Each structure stands twice: as C-alpha cells, then as structure tokens.
C-alpha cells in the first residue's frame, strides 16, 4: 500500500507538478518520441514518491493526453517521467464482433509496477502502433493470453487473466517501463506509414497479404 509509511520525494514531486502544468487547462502533455533517452531507461518502481494529490493529477493528465492523442495506453516514460506507471483504456466498437484481434472491453486502469507472464504458448501477430513512434505501424508477435499483475493508485495488488487485444495493450505498456519499444521485436519489413496501412492492408486484420507482399513471416 502507498500510505503513511511512503516517503514523498519532494524534489521529484515538484518536477512532476511542473510537468503537469505544461499541459495547461487542456491537460495535454507532449508525447516523447523515439530517440529520447527516457524511452530506453528502466523505470524506477513506484513506492509512493509522489503525494497523493500530485499522483491523482498526474493520472488524470495522462488519461486526458492518452484519449486525445488518441491512444489506448500511455506509459509515464512517454511523457518523460521514469516511474513505473501507465494508464490503459479501450472500448469495443460496433465493427469488432468478428475481428480476429479479439478486442474486448478494457475499462480505464492505472497500472503501477506492472508485470506479466504468458499463459500457454499461443501467440498472435498483428499490426500495432505507438504514440512515441508516431505515424507508423508494424506487425508484432505477442502472447495471446497473459497473467497480468499490477498495483492501483491505492497500492492494492491486482492479478488478472487477460486475453486478446487487452493482453496486447498490457504487454505494450508494461514493456515501455523496461525501456522497450514495440518496434524492437516487430517484423521490420512490415513497417508501414499509417497512410499506407490504410491504403493497402487495413482490410486484412490478420496480415497474411502484407506478409506475402512485403516479405516477412507470421
């Protein structure tokens, strides 16, 4: 639990307050792009270094920034902060019923000090993107089912079986916190601009045609 025994880091707390203020009334923070060192650093475990008031403001600002980007997840490193926390949220759309990516309702979560491990050996390969690698997407193989573990903003421990697209989101954001970008293990020949993905490959959620035409294996 993050509580009375947690020691607030006053210097860090001031820095985070300054960061939050850069978002202005709109609460929109600039998103760090690939090449910034913070995206490649192992984050520090969150152990109550921020006051609860500052933590709550940070979470809300990250959520607004994520939604407006738009995205389905945002890690602290993506706003230049080396703490092990992220926000995630995704909702099922009308056209998701038969989508092989297995989208599912994934309500808003704050995930602090997250980790995961695969359940079984099944994987799926789909195009995915990243707000810190703006304008591009590539095919990335990920575990289909995982055991996800994290703490919430109150320090309460959670463990949940995630499947399909929510599992992918959780893996993506957790990887950010250990300095990994999705492109590190993506099929590099699949890399496409968002415009080309829309023009050539968006009608094929399982990227079989892209694999054949661009020369990569699923």
From TrEMBL:
Keywords (A to Z) from UniProt: Hydrolase, Iron, Metal-binding, Protein biosynthesis
One Pfam family linked to the record: Pep_deformylase
Annotated catalysed reactions: N-terminal N-formyl-L-methionyl-[peptide] + H2O = N-terminal L-methionyl-[peptide] + formate
CDD domains (UniProt xref): Pep_deformylase
Cofactor list: Fe(2+)
Keyword check for Protein biosynthesis: yes
Cofactor note (record): Binds 1 Fe(2+) ion.
Active site (record annotation): 173
Domain of life: Bacteria
A GO BP annotation: translation
Binding positions (Fe cation): 130, 172, 176
E.C. no: 3.5.1.88
A GO MF term: peptide deformylase activity
Family: Belongs to the polypeptide deformylase family.
HAMAP family, per the entry: Pep_deformylase (MF_00163)
Name this polypeptide is given: Peptide deformylase
């Amino acid at each position: 639990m993050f509580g009375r025994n947690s020691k607030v880091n006053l210097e860090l707390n001031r820095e985070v307050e300054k960061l939050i203020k850069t978002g202005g009334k709109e609460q929109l923070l600039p998103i760090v792009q690939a090449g910034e060192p913070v995206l490649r650093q192992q984050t520090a475990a969150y152990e109550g270094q921020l006051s609860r008031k500052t933590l709550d403001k940070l979470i809300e600002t990250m959520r607004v920034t994520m939604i407006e980007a738009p995205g389905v997840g945002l890690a602290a490193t993506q706003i230049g902060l080396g703490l092990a926390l992220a926000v995630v949220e995704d909702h099922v759309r009308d056209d998701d019923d038969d989508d092989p990516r297995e989208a599912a309702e994934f309500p808003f979560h704050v995930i602090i000090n997250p980790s995961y491990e695969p359940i079984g050996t099944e994987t799926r390969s789909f195009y995915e993107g990243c707000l810190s690698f703006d304008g591009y997407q590539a095919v990335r193989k990920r575990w289909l089912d995982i055991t996800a573990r994290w703490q919430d903003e109150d320090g309460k421990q959670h463990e949940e079986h995630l499947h399909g697209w929510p599992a992918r989101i959780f893996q993506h954001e957790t990887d950010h916190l250990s300095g990994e970008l999705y492109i590190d293990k993506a099929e590099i020949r699949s890399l496409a601009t968002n415009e080309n993905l829309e023009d050539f490959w968006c009608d094929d959620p399982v990227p079989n045609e892209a694999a054949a035409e661009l020369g990569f294996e699923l």
